[in-house]
TrEMBL record:
Pfam families, per database record: DUF2630 (PF10944)
Annotated InterPro entries: Uncharacterised_Rv0898c (IPR020311)
Basic and acidic residues compositional bias, start-end: 59-71
Domain of life: Bacteria
Organism from which the protein derives: Streptomyces griseoviridis
Disordered: region residues: 59-82
Stated name of the protein: DUF2630 domain-containing protein
């Protein structure tokens, strides 16, 4: 399992990519359909990356081993209620 810093680093990279995609879309530089598909995929992957970080923090808070946190499938992570 990735450590928090590795997870946060990857999330930061993905957020930067998301911002670039959104800017490209706003500027009309790229095809809207393609960009929306790419943004959707990126947003789902970001959700998957945030999930183990939340798991780690919750496990640590309740005296469990944070290294037991796991990346879960998009279908499971996307099914959570906000």
């Amino acid at each position: 399992m990735e450590r928090e810093q590795q997870i946060l680093s990857r999330i930061s990279e993905m957020v930067a990519a998301e911002h670039r995609l959104r800017e490209s879309l706003r500027a009309g530089v790229t095809d809207m359909t393609e960009e929306h598909q790419r943004l959707g995929a990126l947003e789902r992957e970001l959700d998957r990356r945030w999930d183990p970080l939340r798991q780690r923090r919750a496990k640590a808070e309740f005296g469990q081993d944070p290294d037991e946190a796991r990346v879960r499938p998009v279908s499971q992570v996307e099914g959570y209620a906000s």
